[in-house]
Amino acid sequence: MAPPPPPDALASLDSLIQTASALLLQLQAALVDVHREAPESPPLESAAAPSSPLDALALARDAASLIRAHGTKLSLLIINEPFTPSAISSVVRDLQSGPVPAIVSAVQACSSAQYGATVRRELALQCRRVLAELHELLQNIPKDGKALVGNKASASASGKEGGIRVTAILWSACDDVIKLTKLGAAGLYAEKTRQWGDMLQDILDELKEWGEEESDDDDDDEDGDDDGDDDENDDKDDNENDDKDDDDGVDDLTDQLGEAQISTQDMIDDLINSHHAIPRNDPHGIRPRLESTLKRLRLVTLLYRAARLRRFSKLPSPPSTVAQPAVPSRLDRLAQALAKLPERFEDLAGAFYDLQPADIDAAVDQCFRDALAASDLLAKDWDGADDDFTHWIHRFQAEIKSPDGPAR
């Protein structure tokens, strides 16, 4: 068995960990502020770009890779004997002086003027997670001079298994940053657009399924109070059965639990049944509104797919150059418009489920006005010129504006 490390070495390591932990918390707070920056107020288009801008995504990739490697070293040092404070201190100092400040510098270099606020905020979010998981790993460093594998007093959650688990989470956070940097601005916008498009497709499928439901209002009229006498007899039988159940020794606690379960099930049933089907006679003309909405919503889902293929796949890299200063601002406005539409259509679906024609008409108008606004931002290529996709956008807008929706 290796001799325990000297107390002064342990004290020095503990002081270093406290200093590093405090630094990580401060840097996390700074990145949280970046992530919370309002996407509005884009930079002035006349702002000059740096003559040789730093590649923020490449810097973030390299820093995340180094943090991952150093985290692996740190994990091995704290779970294996002999426990060596000097070796652990060396790794922590390397982290403090190199990749930790570098990953924060990458976020600072990822300016909205060059990459757009969406990329900047996403990078800040992912890098903050790396720092948070690294901080968690530092908290797992033993203070008693014993490696986690040999620390019998440690619980499994804070022993070797816990150290490995924390390291794996740190790896995952670093890998996410590396993945983001490989996606680049074009890939990130394309991926988010795919996610928003999937949400719209789900709403489309739900509305279509709801529209195919058959109303049971006629059945309700037939199942009125014709069998009232039978119900009274059934109630008597039920009361007799309840008495027998009580005689079997079912206590009050069980009854209360049963009532709670029934109440919960009733709530679930109410939620499921809250989407009333369209009445067969459709007195308010809900079905024609639904059919028109479904036709045009299908076109909106196509718009999202087309945006990924025809616009984001051709996004300049880096997004902002001296010749294209308006691109980041346009990207941010486009991201806001595309992200907002699923929420709009969810509100529209709620109006349909409530069978409220006035609310439906208002929501339809808002949804498709927003869809047209989003399509306007996609109409030109990134140089501001017309292309083949511009003509597709014009046809899309004409179909959306049609009161009957697109022709079959």
UniProtKB/TrEMBL annotation:
Identify one Pfam family in the record: GCIP_N
- Membrane-spanning intervals of the chain: none
Region called Disordered, residue ranges: 211-253
Per UniProt, residues of the Cyclin-D1-binding protein 1-like N-terminal domain are 62-212
Which Gene Ontology cellular component annotation is one that this UniProt entry carries? nucleus
Position of the signal peptide: none
Q: InterPro entries of this UniProt entry?
A: ARM-type_fold, GCIP-like, GCIP-like_N
> Under what name is this protein listed?
Cyclin-D1-binding protein 1-like N-terminal domain-containing protein
